[in-house]
């Protein structure tokens, strides 16, 4: 079983990102489970969402405490929240930031970074002050998963999930995911 | 067709497939998505029904009651304070023998205000005369809504039913659900034909009238009899459902209980996590199994005793608290064994109140405690709270 934890801020789309990734994994024949942290969502407040995927039915329903991968939608969260908490050794991190993986300062983690904010804003998803970065970060996730061999889900499945499930601007969201896939940086 | 949907969606789709004619709703967290979705179904023509926005849950269930009394199928969704506010009318619906089906997102009761999961809300309604069905997963939620109508409307039953899903761990969790087609559901659940309660100007009747002391008790006895009859009807409907849809439901569902010395008794979404614990402990050689309560009313005494036959200890796990006693399930379970010749030691654990996350480790801890008790054969503390900061309570 692969467990992924998403860190974002209320309004950035972390919960939807987890759901879209679940739909993408479902399209690849996996059993899936995704859920938000059971919290009260407020715009701008740190939020979490979780994803499990497996080749067999998923029964466990506790929160994810030892993820295989973390996805961070806002790099400023790193100062406020221990996003690496419980991350399995050999685990993977995907972070929306203008910085390179080596500049983040996490040790012993397979890291990918992507400037999801700039990509999302360029394609008109949200505003500069409140960009919707969830589909961009999924593109980066697909690329990182491929690169590191952790929790692989194909970019094609992600694009399909976006086209089917995103209520507004599906084409722009799909383009954003593809561009982020191309522009991810690794360490 | 298989879809990735959340528990609230599973309930809304399940309800839609049953073609209710009236849905009255006052949305409450965490079941709000259910009326939202159903109102969309009604607005876009997918569901031919009257959707009534009301000003409280008391009104929501009252509107369902009134509509059902004219002879149509009805539905609403609620949870927590909302269910508590319905309390008065729940008894009326049951006493009038109106087979209303509602879904309850199991959420804690105030105070302190808390929107997260436990099932104190439905436990508080266990004496109201409603059938109770509890879901472990989103698939159950959809399937049980469909089956609940069939059971509730059976002419030998005619009792209202509630189908529960745990707050967030089901309501807001996306997973794969096999959604049956409308044709399949229509074939299983034909349109509602009122047998006793309907509005017919040619044949006017009085409903919900006063019963004097010389008659009241007979009405209550009739409800109790209907609950007892429901035991058999539930089995029949579950069997028919399995034959048509290929998914098997049981009032008490055993898991690895055959040679089990310790059996965990669970309900709702915690069951999946408890299954993981059972497998983990089995690998270490502990003879532990699990029994899940799907039907809480009528309480499946017979099935419980059968499932636990040969076990040394039954660990009843309650995500609720009947203050001044212990878990609500524990009380019912204990009563089931009162005249049984052979009974296991019975322990009760309170966990997961107000959304505290039940973990695999919690269930392992319960088994560890059970082993200790089995060594001495004596239960000194029948009710134990776990994963609680007792030291903070002075």
What does this structure look like?
The complex is a heterodimer of chains A (187) and B (394). With 187 residues, chain A is α/β, with parallel strands linked by helices. Chain A contains seven helices and seven strands. Chain A has a seven-stranded mixed beta sheet with strand order 2-3-1-4-5-6-7. In chain A, helix 3 links the parallel strand 5 and strand 6. The longest helix of chain A is centred in the last third of the chain and has 15 residues. Chain A starts with a strand and ends with a strand. Chain B has two domains: 244 residues, Thiamin diphosphate (ThDP)-binding fold, Pyr/PP domains (Rossmann fold), CATH 3.40.50.970; 141 residues, Rossmann fold, CATH 3.40.50. Chain B is built from twelve helices and 15 strands. In chain B, helix 2 links the parallel strand 2 and strand 3. Classes of the chains: A alpha/beta (187), B alpha/beta (394). At the A-B interface, helix 1 and strand 2 of A face strand 8 and helix 9 of B.
Feature tags:
heterodimer; A: 187 residues; alpha/beta; Pyruvate-ferredoxin Oxidoreductase, domain 3; seven-stranded mixed beta sheet; 7 strands; 37% helix; B: alpha/beta; Rossmann fold; 2 domains; six-stranded mixed beta sheet; 12 helices; 40% helix
